[in-house]
Design a protein that fits this description.
Blueprint (H helix, E strand, L loop, with lengths): L1 H18 L2 H20 L7 E7 L4 H12 L3 E7 L2 H9 L5 E5 L11 E4 L4 H22 L19 H32 L1 H6 L5 H31 L7 H25 L3 H18 L11 H7 L3 H15 L3 H25 L5
Parallel strand pairs: 1-2, 1-3
Antiparallel strand pairs: 3-4
Helix pairs in contact: 1-8, 2-6, 2-8, 3-5, 6-8, 6-9, 6-10, 6-12, 8-9, 8-13, 9-10, 9-12, 9-13, 12-13
Length: about 350
């Protein structure tokens, strides 16, 4: 009998989703648009670093250094300045990111080069200075004027160093957070404001059946979203999971339980749609900033790293990147799966317990 009631409630939820046109559109179209646009614009690769060069040496070696930098994919010589002040002015005006001064006697080994970087964008300034330094050393080494240590570098798991390969799994995590977190919340609070939930409160439907009817459609939506993400990553960017696809779906199911459970809990405690939106938005911001999606957890302060252990996206993100880039197996990621399962159980139980039927 309870199964029949649950099936009837699920039919009701699916009919509501079909009648609310924006929900199917969000589930079907929004992930495709995000996967097509975000990997191109949210790219932290540092390219096209502008360099202002002051060449006091005016030797064959200095001219070769300038030519090699300008031919680089990562560096662009924006200005050949006459003085250091002119080069610094170019940095102040935003025309260049790094200043390179080649002093008198550099080709004879009398003086080192001087590199100054724009520290407003600390990441671009630091990496830009390193790019310039490495470019100078390579050119000098090829000319045979300095002794350089030959090194061999092998990039594991992401040989091309394409930042999109690092971002695409995280984007799928963000999509699940938004769709499976926001939509159940808006659905349930919308019924509160319209008054239709009052009719449900006077029926003998159990709290568990009611909450499951709210969660299951969005579990399916999560699977649809991640399927779209996998197809788009493969078709558009050529990125396929190095590990088993089943591990991706298993993690998606667990994380979808977590996010939909959190959404229902927020809806149960919210009186208005606006209140639920603000609370859910705050939760999503914390999850995105502290889940290791866009910034490495290892770069955070120690106290912040400890807090991330209580942030579910941390574990889902670790699983997605490990399966996609490293080909990790279940035996490698059992701890992350166990933590996600614990969060899923806790949030779903809380969602059921916080729903109060009115007599």
């Amino acid at each position: 009998m309870k199964l029949r009631i649950l099936c009837a409630l699920l039919r009701k939820e699916l009919l509501l989703m079909r009648r609310t046109r924006f929900i199917p559109i969000i589930i079907a179209v929004f992930p495709v648009m995000v996967m097509l646009v975000i990997p191109h614009v949210a790219n932290l690769d540092i390219k096209n670093v502008g360099v202002a060069v002051v060449d006091h040496d005016r030797s064959q070696l200095s001219r070769r250094i300038i030519a090699d930098m300008d031919a680089s994919e990562w560096l662009t010589v924006r200005q050949l300045a006459a003085t250091d002040d002119d080069a610094l002015r170019a940095i102040e005006d935003g025309e260049a990111d790094v200043r390179l001064t080649i002093p008198y006697g550099f080709s004879k080994g009398l003086s080192p080069v001087d590199i100054s970087a724009n520290g407003v964008n600390a990441t671009k300034g630091m990496l830009g200075a390193q790019y310039v330094s490495q470019s100078v050393m390579r050119t000098v080494g090829r000319q045979g004027n300095r002794r350089l240590v030959e090194t061999s570098v092998v990039n594991r798991f992401n040989p091309t160093l394409d930042f999109r390969n690092y971002m695409l799994p995280a984007i799928m995590v963000v999509l699940i957070i938004i769709i499976c977190g926001f939509l159940p919340t808006l659905n349930l609070v919308g019924e509160k404001e319209s008054g239709t939930i009052e009719a449900m409160n006077v029926t003998p439907v159990s709290r568990l059946s009611f909450v499951l009817s709210k969660l299951i459609p969005y579990w399916l939506a999560g699977l649809i979203v991640v399927t779209e993400g996998i197809i788009m990553a493969r078709a558009v960017y050529g990125l396929a999971p190095a590990g088993a696809v089943g591990l991706v779906y298993l993690a998606t199911i667990l994380f979808t339980l977590v996010m939909s459970g959190i959404g229902v809990v927020i809806a149960n405690k919210s009186e208005t749609l606006l209140q639920s939106i603000f609370v859910m938005f705050a939760v999503i911001m914390i999850f995105q900033l502290m889940g290791g999606l866009f910034t490495p957890i290892s770069s955070m302060p120690r106290w912040a790293q400890m807090i991330t252990y209580a942030v579910p996206p941390r574990y889902f993100n670790e699983i997605m990147r490990a399966v996609y880039l490293k080909g990790s197996t279940l035996s490698d990621l059992w701890m992350q799966y166990l933590c996600l399962a614990g969060f899923a159980l806790a949030t779903c139980l809380t969602a059921a317990l916080t729903y109060r039927k009115q007599s």
